[in-house]
Structures are given as structure tokens and as C-alpha cells.
Amino acid sequence: VPINLYKFCQEIIEEFTIVEGSIHEFVFTCESQTTDAVMDERLLHYILGNILSNAVKYSPEGGRIQLHLQCDSLTGIATFEIQDQGIGIPEIDYSKLFESFYRASNVKLTQGNGLGLVIVKKSIEAHNGQISFTSQVGVGTKFTVNLPLNPIIFNE
Ligand code: ATP
Ligand code: MG
Fold first, then answer.
1. Which pTM was predicted?
2. Where does the Histidine kinase domain start and stop, copy by copy (predicted)?
């Protein structure tokens, strides 16, 4: 069953606004006209929810957290960008960030197991997708997730 990614993103941002909206500002943007995709809704919620939760956890009060969706019908790829204005990730930690139990050197008092991103990455790759990030310490972090809009066509 195809899902509407625009509606899906709107809803997850709404959900985060209700729970965390007094501390952070959540924004959703999208310019794509068609956003239908064949995806496991629960798994997508898990993936984006995890990345958004990290954005919340590693951002100071008042930080803006933006989810941007782009669906490219030519390449058949949906791109999700999650941008925050948080603590950022030190360059020295980049190469180990997707390893189990690894947490960057600047996480200080926040709690975590260092497993969220490991499971997120595995889930994305199981769908023939990719995850990457860019970051600047003290400025913010952007995670980019690419997923095929239709894995059935993709696999043929
Ligand atoms: P948990 O397993 O509970 O999710 P965690 O948040 O520490 O614990 P991951 O979600 O796997 O683990 O993230 C790994 C590390 O990547 C974090 O400990 C943190 O150092 C860094 N990180 C992830 N997202 C961000 C972000 N948005 N801003 C800054 N650092 C981040
Ligand atoms: Mg986490």
C-alpha cells in the first residue's frame, strides 16, 4: 500500500511538536508535488523518529529542528534531511558514529547507549537506502536519508 510521505512527515513533526514543542521549534518543508511511496510505515517512523530524537537530545533549548522532504520521480528516490542547531559532532568521531555503543566525545551529561543510529543504518540499508551526515561543532548537524520510493520496481 502506497503511503503519502508529505502527510507522513507532517504527522511526525506534529507528534514531536506536541511532545517537545515547548522546548524546540519544529519545521517541515517540501516542494515536491508527488510524494507517494511504497514503504513500511512503522519502520520509516522508527528511522525518522530516532534521528529527530537525537536532534532533540543534542540541541539546546529553543533550537530549530527542520525536516525537509524531496521526492525525485526521475531517480525514484525520496530524500529526508533532518537539520538541527545543536552541539554538532566533532570530526574525530565521524568514522565511528555508526558503530555500536559509540558516542561522540562532546555528549557530556546526556543519556544514551550509542545504538540508535546503528539500528537506523541497518534498517535503511535493508531497504537499499543510504544515510549520511554533515556537521559543525556548535553550529548543528544535518542527517540525510535516501530511500527508494518503490523498492519493488527498484529490485526488478
Ligand atoms: P541511543 O542508543 O539511546 O540512541 P545515542 O543517542 O547516544 O544513544 P545514537 O543515536 O546511535 O546513540 O547516536 C550516536 C552518537 O552520535 C551520539 O551519542 C552522539 O554523539 C552523536 N549524534 C547523533 N545525532 C546527533 C545530533 N543530531 N547532534 C549531535 N550529535 C549527534
Ligand atoms: Mg540516539
1. 0.96
2. 1-151
